[in-house]
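Quick one:
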Amino acid sequence: MSASVSFMAVDLGASSGRVMDCRWDGDRFSLYEAHRFPNAGVRVDTDLYWDVLRIWTEIQNGLRKWNALHDELPAGIGMDAWGVDYCLLDERDRLLGNPHHYRDARTNGVPAAVSSAMSSRDLFRATGVQTMEINTVFQLASMAIHHDRRLIHACSLLMIPDFFQFLLCGEKRAEYTEATTTQIFDLRARCWSQETLQRLELPGCIFQEIVLPGTVLGELLPEIQSECGFAGSVPCIAVASHDTASAVAAIPDLNEYSAFLSSGTWSLMGVAVDEPNLSDAAFHAGFTNEGAADGGVLLIKNMTGLWILQECVRVWEAAGDLFTWPEVEQAAASAPAFRSFIDPSVSAFQSPANMCAAIALSCAESKQHVPQSPGEFARCVFESLSFAYREALEELERITGRGLRNIRVAGGGCLNQFLCQMTADACGREVIAGPVEAAALGNAMAQAVATGHLSSFAEGRAALRQSIELRTYEPAPADEWRQAFERYKSVVARGRNSAPASMQT
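Output:
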């Protein structure tokens, strides 16, 4: 077994995908980008889809580029992606159309429509997962309600990363961490929830056998080897294929006194636990349980993240004002503090036609200052996100009984120094940021464990600690932030109290 090997990590995000070259020299990991491509939903009439055939083409382009850079074969290929979305295959394993995007409107109102068969509380008890309209269970329920022919003719369901692994090696499996995002998986029994399938009358026969991260699925198909120029077989490995689980796996020094924050399009704050927390306190606070890379559980609060600001930037670009992210941060830093707050979790900010207009309307309805300039909008979003993190942190401490001393940030949000410092100030905790490409590193680490280059995920985290640069942010004096947090909570409480019951946790 060579001390120096390269793993190929395919990391698919909702806004971009990349094929990463992750080299392990026996002591450290190093990471290089072989191929990056944009990714986004494709709207056809009123429906929003993922163009999975284009994504597959880009993955193959990445394999070719990786091969052109190396004389040796990769030690493995792993795939991670976002959660909840899936592909359906017929009896000959042919794709039954492009899969819908989780932001598609077809699931609007579906949780309420099926609540007589299974309430949100029942679903939480059965699966450990909090009800969100985007979840796989409601996408499938929507198809069943509308007698969608694709579901009627489906013989197999594969989650997005599982589908691309199937195209690579021909094996159909359901990877554990991705399966836990569906709200159809029983985290206590570690199998598909038969109660959920039966009560919602969903076809259980389409779901695949569960495998844990670190499972070798098979070898790269000969036709893919030939198409992409590989001279021999390559192991295809099930990593923690939910990108959040891979990202958390790559965070060094994560212990019982640390909260993690996976920061990107979505913000996910949580802690690692041994067993799912199905308590009333966790349910009413909006926490969810998802699989961890080591087979454990992550207790998580899912929050809308930098998506809100990304959509603001898109509005400004459409108006002819182009901003880089450093310019957005600088504009926010120059704007007055604590003038306007929003609740990032409400449905109004999930997929509005104009994000700036949605923010302005929310501020006007709550009788706050209405942002006018890009800097004021950005400041409002950054402050609101940081206070949402504090709210989640305090709830985590209450639910778990832990004293959380620091927040460990991973993902693209690590690069946003303004938000990292603001998170430290708002939460009154030390923030340690890094790694940025956490999902790809966690992906590679699982491959190294599967191939015997590392003995365990614990050993892998220790190796990553030596491989990455971390940045620490110390909190500012608390009085001003404490007063602003009380105002934020007041604004958020008024909005939540006026929301329809179906939108309240």
